[in-house]
Amino acid sequence: MGECVGYQALSSSEWVKKTWIARALENGDVDVHVFPTDLGFEKAKNDYNKLWDQAFGTVPYPKGMTDAQGSSMYTQLACHARYVFKLPNGEWNTHESWDMESWRPDVSWDYGMNPATWLIHKCNWRN
């Protein structure tokens, strides 16, 4: 991402313990890193709207985001929540955070959430 400015906040919500937002100085791209609680890793797949609300409950939504960028990031977050699982070593396959990027295209819900296409994109689709 290069040089950026950002902000973060801890949360006492059920599924999200921290949200960190960074904006690239060069081009304005936004990265959002959501750090789920243990319960979030396990249960957030049951209600994507609740997860989204908890992710942005303690930090301001990034200014200047288009509807398409917001939609893409919502689908990315839902995808991470849906396809998270524990690895044999006890760690989560998505690591400690679910990361969304504003520069990713706004794909259809079916493409973003389909198990067959997930095997290809792993919630990180490209143009």
Mean pLDDT: 93
Major β-sheet strand ordering: 1-2-3-4
The number of helical elements comes to 5
Question: What's the SSE pattern?
Answer: EEEHHHEHH
Find the structural class using helix and strand composition: alpha+beta
What does the main sheet amount to?
4 strands, antiparallel
Low-pLDDT stretches: none
| Radius of gyration, CA atoms, in whole angstroms | 14 Å
* Tally of distinct domains: 1
Ends distance: 17 Å
Number of strands: 4
Proportion of helical residues: 25-40%
Proportion in β-strands: 15-25%
Protein architecture, described:
This protein is of the alpha+beta class and 127 residues long. It has one domain (4-121). The chain is 33% helix and 21% strand. The protein has five helices and four strands; from the N terminus they run E-E-E-H-H-H-E-H-H. Strands 1-2-3-4 form a four-stranded antiparallel β-sheet. Strand 1 and strand 2 form a beta hairpin. The mean pLDDT is 93.
Layout of strands and helices, then pairs:
Layout lengths: L3 E7 L5 E9 L5 E7 L1 H6 L4 H8 L11 H16 L15 E4 L7 H5 L1 H7 L6
Antiparallel strand pairs: 1-2, 2-3, 3-4
List keywords for this structure.
5 helices; 33% helix
Short description:
By secondary structure, the protein is α+β, with helices and mostly antiparallel strands.
